[in-house]
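Hello forum,

I keep getting stuck at the same step: I have a sequence, I want structure tokens, and every attempt I make locally crashes halfway through. Rather than fight my setup again tonight, could one of you with a working pipeline run this one for me? It's a single chain of 752 residues.
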Amino acid sequence: MIAIKQLQTVCYILLISLWMHPVFAERGLAQETGVRETQATRSGNAEDITGAIQSINETITFLMTRQSDQAATELGVTAAEIEKRLIDLSVLKSAYERLLNSHSALDKMEQDKRSIKENYEKFRVKGVQEKPPYTLTLLDSVMEDFSTAERNLNNFDLSLELLRQEVSDDNERLKTAQKELRKNEEMLVDAGREEKKRLQWKVEGLNIQSSRLQATLQAKENEIERYEQEKDTTEIQIAWFKEKSDLIRSKITYNDDDLKHQMATMQQKKADILKEKQRLYQEQKIVEEKWIKAQQDFEKTHHEGQKAVAEAYLGARDEWRRTYQVALELNERAALLMDQQLIAWQNRYKLVNGKVSSEELEDMKRAADKNVEILGQTLKIQQSYLAGIQQRMSSIDLKLGEDGVSASFRRHLSVQLDAMRKHLERRLEYQTVILATDQIERRLFSEIENNLGQLTIEDRITDIKDNIVEFWNIEIWTVDNQPVTLKKAVTALVILLLGVALSKFFLSMIYSRFLLKSQFQETTASAVHKVLSYSAYLLIFLLALRMVNIPLTAFAFLGGAVAIGIGFGAQNLINNFISGFMILGERPINIGDLIEVDGVLGMVEEVGTRCTRVRTGENIHILVPNSTFLEQKITNWTLSNKKIRVNITVGVAYGSPVEQVRETLIRAAQEVPLVLANPEPFVIFDDFGDNALVFNLYFWVEISRVIQRRQIESDVRFKIDALFAQEGIVIAFPQRDVHLDTSNPLKITLDQ
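Reply #2:
Ran it on my machine without issues. Output:
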């Protein structure tokens, strides 16, 4: 605690200077004040601080009894400085009073803390005064105290933070003031008589400032100590209320009388709101009539001076009209909130009764959480409205304070201001209902969480099971008022996949064991296999839908999607799909056929729904779209049978026996085993070439592989070469005869 001496020195110095002045010596006040200040300095208790305040009051009173100009002349200062000094003394007095109050508040807080500690200890020994079983009403009263204590605790933290910052700032200001005071006191020692009087006055002012800052600092430090004591006390209260609420909550039982009392209270409040609504309706009619009349008067007024008054009257009537509209709207909303409170109370006692499943708890939790969120948003909206109304009221107040406003105009503005006050009052009442509803919903939410936290393992397993079942039965879409759930969709999908897998297995057995070994051609067997497959898939799909009661109309929307797909991106796909079925039906190509596509020779291995797979002699697979076989020219070497005619061209030298050549060629073809005897091979003398006699050997072969034709042609050529060598027949090769003109000798020149 700072010394009271420093706080009271100012008045003492001031009165000493007055006492030394011959005009004020007769008063004898300086001596008396100095004695009181000294006593206060020594003790620093409330009595001495009160005495110091009294001394300051006497000084202020004495100065105020003198005329400002006269006192200024006598003290050698200006009248303005006298007025400023009086203000400084008043501020110093306020600092003393704050210090005195801080002492008193700190003492009282210490007593309260001791009392609360004693009561808390008694509670821990004896428990709650009321006898169990307890009701929710009793729990709410304790929880209200608990919530208030928590809010206070947060406020204490904010207040302490602000006070500590203020103390820090005041310390800096005090240092500056004391530095200035020391500087002027040094100057006072060496100053002349006139300068000394001026400096003396300034030193007294700096003493007042320094003393005020010290008193304020001490008061704030006392307040910080009090807030810390109060914070400790509040923490004790929070622990007390927490233990008390836990004890009450553990022994709460279903109390039908308490529930009926709460319901009756809510219903009575709602009845009062509805009764108020009827009254507002009646009054609104009168307000509407006055507004209509004001509007008509305004339209009839043409004089500029009267028009402003008529406009103000219309504004007042319009404000009352708006106020009643808002009041009725808020009245209806308040009635709905009373219903919400009633439901919350019923749910709270339902929790107490213990007849709530875990699924219902989750539903109630979601609903309560949503209600709290909506109430929070509504509260923000109301606060925004309140701020707007207050701003408009301030604007009206400013207009009322302007000069030159006529009495009638001022009266209408006052009426408008009264309407705004009523509007503000209605919104504040509605905000109170919102806060009460929010509090009940939050308590319900907290109690639901407590119940969920107390679930047994069996309850949690049941809860998980219920959640799975609930998720399993989620409705995906509806068709003809029949729900298609996730369970049905997944079951149908499983049936479909298993059915497709089993059908593939059995159909592959049928294809390999019966169709391929039957009299059907391989292509026909493949076509039958595909038809059976698609039919089986369709039946399985329909069966899967039937087993889970999903109507076919559930997929009606796919028809439009498929139609659009065909019209745009799926044209080629559908074209190839249809072409595949046409190929299987008409059979322009069969599996095992040797076909030539774009100059590439290959064997057909599979005719699919979209494309046909062809393997070349290099063992490279080519996927040919089915539409290609119907739209382009394709060579099928083995469509009707596997016999093809092959020809080999051979050139022999001029002068060779042509008949012997023909017989030798035929014999070469006949001696190759894979050349067919029927039809017989034959030879065509094709041309007298530039370098050879050209013969073509034609013979028939039966091929089933791409490379087989070339292998047979190669064997025949080997045989021809061997027989020609044996018969002495020369295979021609390109040659040129060069003829030289020898009628004249050739001239040869050698150059060096």
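Residues 1-43 have pLDDT under 50 and may be disordered. If your local run keeps crashing, start a new thread with the error log.
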